[in-house]
Give the backbone structure.
Amino acid sequence: MRVRKAYTRINSLSRLAPLVLFLTSYLPLFVLVIVRQTCANWDYLSWGGFNAEAFECMVKHFGMSVICVVLSMIGAIGTIFVFKNLRHRVESGHTYRITEVSSMNDEPLAYIATYIIPIVFGNYSSLIDCVTIVFIFLVIYRLYIRSKLILVNPILSLKYSIYSVKYMDGDIQRQGILISRNNDILENDQAKMYNVGHQLFYGYKR
């Protein structure tokens, strides 16, 4: 009698992992905001010492840029540690036979067009503008971590490939999204897959 393999238990990412992945996905936006705000306020870019007036000038003309620099560093450093951890953990995953596969490498382009382009042309000179942008990011972040967008990342796509896959788990065909450094995964390939969320996997072709 053939025994059906039990479905793999979900190994959720740590609490900080979705946050740093989200921040990394917006790294191009952060860079553009920094460049745009710096160029627009170039005349104010000078050392004013440590005093209330200088601090107020920095917050008013470069506040959003400072925030973007901090968020970019947190996202970049955090993502490096996340994937370093995944490379160690993937060996405790399972090997599955891929039955169907389609590339999702064009998804980050839609991601950029939908969110980055409208936001980058905003005005960041007033507190209301900054609060509005922060509110938009909070809403997008909540949607991001509750959906498969967590692996749709233009920065990750520079090094990794994203696939929509169907695979055999015993007698059952399941589906999910796989992020891998392999750019040539095809049908009937064997892939080592480590589950990092609902229908989300990190892995490689065997």
